[in-house]
Fold:
Amino acid sequence: MEKREKRILLCLCHLSGNEIKYVQKAFDDNWVVPLGPNVNGFEEDLQKFVGENKEVVALSAGTAAVHLALLSCGVGPGDEVCVQSFTFCASSNPITYLGATPVFIDSEKDTWNMDPELLEKAIQDRIAKTGKKPKAIVPVALYGMPYQCDKIMEISRKYDIPVVEDAAEGFGSKYKGQVLGTFGKFGVLSFNGNKMITTSGGGALICEDKDSKNNIMWYATQARDAYPYYQHSAIGYNYRMSNICAGIGRGQMTVAADHIRHHQKLASLYAELFKDVKGITFHKNPNSDYDSNYWLNAITISPELKIKGQENAYKQVITGAVGGAAGVIHAVDCPTTDCQPNDNVEALRIALDALNIESRPLWKPMHKQPVYANAPAYVNGVSESLFKIGMCLPSGPYVTEDDVRFIVDAIKESIVD
Ligand SMILES: *Cc1c(COP(=O)(O)O)cnc(C)c1O
Structure:
């Protein structure tokens, strides 16, 4: 196969909603600080999107939203928080920022998200071992797929532990017709450059009511008390969204529903095209209760499936890193770790890369990360085995149906028959 000129990226936001009009308005209004008409307008748009009975605060990042939600649940030094292990580090790192300890919960096979049975076992075991209840439960909508909302909320009520839904990847996904992020005490959204919609960088927290929103906003704006000078009775943060970024968000909200539909359309095409490919399984909604936004489309690859060149996988240290070129990445000496995707998965990644198609392994479970080696973990092997056989494929507004056909053909071509 010939590689194409245009690289097909994993997920790239599409500024098709006349964002510049709102950004220009920020300049015209001379509101370029972290408050103003765009911030208010964006929050109203988000509120309409998630449902009028909720309140939404726009913040500088999804990570900031996780941080403030946990803070507001009373998480502090010495506490524990039950968090899905199969996730991006931003779900669990804020637990550590607060001096608390993450307790990692493995996934179930259907949604790849937090296993409710293991969650309950972990809660009981933590109470037995520490004499204290975990302070919060953080399920994650991995790649947009809803978690088992009913069961997780039932456990939350039974033990009276609040849920902070990490719906950073699940913007617009629904469970039994209800938007993710509206089930728990808090719902986290992210508008990073690669998420369902973007504000360049940003996030939001869905709150239960006005008081809860005010409390979050207070912490997000350095926790100031009402005096003619700076007076603080708590440690605050500088986490509010800029009025310029919110302008991008307002534009994006005009096309959000189209973006979600496009991701879902690509998913059904992938599912259709992979149906007859032996050894490859497309990750899809387990049943009609689940309505994923299919932010990233994912497949699993049987360990028996032979991919051309797999004998050369992991022979060289790579110079980049997953997640784009942004920031600094620590170089490593050794191309392998004790827990990594199978050779056929890595060979497929390299084969697709040579055809100018970006793909990515699934997120490496947090309980397998060196930095969390000492954190308690309740595991059943599901996330670790998925990590070894899984792969994310290009999704999003820039990916065409023709691209999907090209990608699936490229995958078929790389299989040794
Ligand atoms: C992206 C992401 C976040 C954090 O969002 P940022 O806006 O990048 O800070 C949190 N959790 C998950 C699962 C994510 O994918």
